[in-house]
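anyone seen this seq b4? input:
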Amino acid sequence: MAEWYDDLTDEEIIIQIRQGDNPGVDYLMEKYKNLVRKKARALYLIGGDSDDLMEGMIVRYIKEPPCSESVCFSYDMKDSVYVLKLIPGMHASILPYLFMHYDCIVIESFGVGGIPNTLVQEFYREMKEWEGKGKYVVMTTQVANEGSNMTVYEVGKRVKQDFKLLEAYDMTLEAVITKMMWLMGRGQSDYEGMKREFYTEINHDILFTKRLEREG
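predicted toks r here
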């Protein structure tokens, strides 16, 4: 099989891979593994993170599915999004102002999904007051390379059970902000529709979907 790929250019092999030729991936990985190791050593010497690679090898490969629909560009974006980074000692009085002036609040929580007790009472009050009025809350995390999981902490678990909010899981902060601006700009208003669109994968923006399937 390897001899067959030797007669093809890398570009031709990539075309075959996009058509479902999985062995082509193995061929390219084997072909360039020494180059990857060489580059990895150089990057590590200037401060690269060795955890990104394992023994100089790429440890994750995301298969690119073939395009099945025509490309559609959107130009209407709604910028009524605020990112609230929780910090120790934050006063709860900030929440009424944010809910009043912004349609989407992205909360960078403690740990992988915790809310401090000092904010819980006011958070519940605002969530109940603005329920069904086109306001959205997205919970994410300040933990790098971890992803959110609101079921870890009791307060986060209770909040998720009591209110209709979105959880970022392994989406980056940039992806969350951009996606919410785009969805709100499209006029998406009902929670179920927003939830469905938010968790629809676009260009690998969310990969951790097994928990979503379990939670329904």
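Confidence is low (pLDDT under 50) at residues 44-52. The first helix runs from residue 2 to 6. kinda curious what u guys think
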